Structures are given as C-alpha cells and as structure tokens.
Amino acid sequence: MNEGTKILIAAVLAVFIGIRAGGSGNASEKTPLKGERFPDIRLAVPEKEAEKSYLGLSGKGTFALSDVKADVLIIEIFSMYCPYCQKEAPLVNQLFETIGKAEDVKNRIKVIGIGAGNTPFEVDVFRTQYAVPFPLFDDQSYDVYKRIGEVRTPYFFVLKLHPDRSNTIVYSKVGTIGDPAQFLAFVRDEAGLK
User: Fold this and answer.
1) pTM attached to this predicted model
2) Which residue ranges make up each domain of the chain?
C-alpha cells in the first residue's frame, strides 16, 4: 500500500470516528459533567395544562430549568430517529411511573425529554409512538444540543435544583438507565433526597 493510500484511509477513519463519537467534532461547548452546572437554557412552556401543572409552570412563552418546581430534574436527550432511544422509551416511561408512585419524591423529582434536532411534529410522533407520559420538547435548531456538547443519544442528565436557582449535575451519561427502580434509588442517593 503506498503512502497516499495510507493517508487517505487514515483521513476517512478519522472522519468516521468523529461522526460515531456523536457529532461533527465542532461541538460549541463541552458536555457538562457530574459536579458541574447545566447550561442556562430556555424551553417553550408546554401548551397542555397537565404538563404545565406537572412542571409547576404557568402562562406562555419560555421557561428556564430553574423555573421547574422540583428538587431534581431528570433530562433525557433523545432523537425520534435513534433506535437506542426507541428501545429506552419503555424504561424511561417506567421510571416516570415509579417516581409517581413514590410518595416521598413524586413531587420532588420531575422528568423531561429534549428531542435533539427534532421538530415539534417529530417529537409528537415519538410521544405518540412510545406513549411518553412526561413533557417532551423539540430542539429543531440544535440550540440545546450544541450547548451540551453534541452528545450521543440517549443521554441523561440529572440535575439537583437549588433554591438560589442554580443547579448541580449529579449524573451525566450516555446510554441506558437500566432498571428504573435501581436508577431512582441511585438518583435519590446522588441528589441527597432522604
């Protein structure tokens, strides 16, 4: 194999590895990790009254994550087109239901999903197809996705929300949550919910 072919193969592999790693390699920001603060982002206030009530919101427009009435916020970054997100959907739904049955935390832990690059229509398709019971938000312009380092999906962040409207990430990982009951126990411990 000549030197030019070796260089071409190396370049193609580098591009392929960059794409497989979760993006173009031009992430606007690095992925926030455990112990760090989640970026200040704004999402559209849900139109459905039940979702507004669940998050403790009112009115129209946008809201900051610090506006959510909870001690802990679990965020799933998903894509309608991601087969791993599709496979994970029943587990996340079960986590939501498990939280709802736990009297001591059902009003303290909230769950949302953000569809990376997904339009409102695509988010609605995902919500309907997988019977998602918690609020989902579109990120069709990739604004949030870029702010969190263009992560692979599904990606989960667990935020401890503080009274001063700041937050601390207690979990930041790609992949499955595994057993929902065990994940909830982990979240309780990491967030210091007793």
Assistant:
1) 0.85
2) 1-27, 31-191
